Amino acid sequence: MEFGVNFFPVVDPAEKSATQYYDESLRLTKVAETLGFEHVQTVEHYFSAYGGYSPDPVTFLAAVAAQTTRIRVATGAVIAAFTHPLKLAGKLAMLDHLSHGRLDVGFGRGFLPDEFEAFQVPMDSSKARFAETIEAVRRLWTEENVLWDGQFHQFGPVSMLPRPYQQPHPPIFVASATSAESCAAAGTAGHHLQVVPSVTSREALQENIAGYRAAYAAAGHPGAPRIQIKYTCYLSEDRSEALVAGAHYEQNYIDKMAEAIASWASTRSDAYPGYEKFIDKVRAFDFKKSLQDNKVLAGTASDIRAQLETIRGWFGDDLCVSLQFNPGAMPFSQSLNAIELFGREVMPHFTAVGALQEVR
Fold first, then answer.
1. From 128's CA, which of 19, 51, 233, 346 has a CA 20 to 30 Å away?
2. Are the C-beta atoms of 38 and 2 separated by less than 8 Å?
3. CATH no. for 2-359
4. What is the distance between the alpha carbons of residues 60 and 224, in angstroms, rounded to a whole number?
5. Mean pLDDT for the stretch of residues 271-276
C-alpha cells in the first residue's frame, strides 16, 4: 500500500481565511514529502464552503510543485465539463513541466447542480462531455495537428505547446462515486481509478473495483492499474481526542455538503439516477456507524492500523490511500500532529520499506 494526502476544503471565511487554509495546507505538503507520502491531491469545486476554496486545483498544485521535489501532485479531480479541452490540456501540460513529471491527472464529471447552472452547462450532457474532454486532452498531449470535431467542441488543426513532460502523457485517473459502469469503462480505456468509499456500500465498492480490475486486464493494458481511495483521518495519541475531533469535523463536512447539494431536491437528471435522494442519505449520516463501517479513520495509531488492515483485506494491497488530515477549520497543530503520527507509526507498517524493516 501507498499513502497520499488529500485536501478538500470544507471551510468558509468565517472559520478560516483562504490565505490561512492555503498556507497551512502547503506546510503540510512539505511535511508529507519528508515523511514519504506518495502524492498530494486536491479537488475542484466552486462557490460554497463545500470545496469552494479550491476552484482551480492546478494553481494549488503548482505551488506544491514549487515547494517540493519528490512527492507527486494529483488532481482529484478536475471537472471536465467546465473547461475547454484546449485550455485544460495546456494548463495540465504546463504543471507537468513545473513539477518535472510528477503530475497525475484525475478527471471527474461533477455532480452539484448549482455549479452546472453557473457554468451554463446542462447536467444531462456531463457524461458525454466527460468522455469527450478526456479523449480530446489525450490527443492534444500525444498528437500533432489535432483536428477535433466533437459533439461539444470543434477546433484545429492545432499542435499543443508545451507537450507534457511525461511521455506519452501524465497518468490519467477517472473519479467514480457509485457507478460500476464508469469503473469498468475506465479499466477498458486503460485509465487509473479514484474512488470515495463514504458514498457507497462496501459491497458495491468491492464489486466496482473488481469490475475495474477485470476490465483493465481484459483489455490487455501493460502494467498494473493504480487505484486511489480517499478517507478522512483523525489521529491522536489520545483516542477520545481523535473521536471527538472526528465526530465534530465529519458533521461539519455533512452540514456543508447538505447545503451544497440542497438543489437536488428540485433537480432531476437522467445522467444522475437516484441523486434526488442524495440529500436524505447525507442527512442520515451517523459518525459511529461510519467509523464502524471503516468509512472514516479515527483513533490512535493502533486503531488506524487495524482499520487499514481491514480495508486492505476488502479492496486489495495495491491501493494508494489518500488521506485528509486538515478537514474543516481544524487547528493546524492538530493536523500536523496527525500527519506526523501517521508517518511515524502507521505508514511504515504497510509500505514496502516498513514491511522489510519488520522482517529484519
1. 51
2. yes
3. 3.20.20.30
4. 29
5. 86
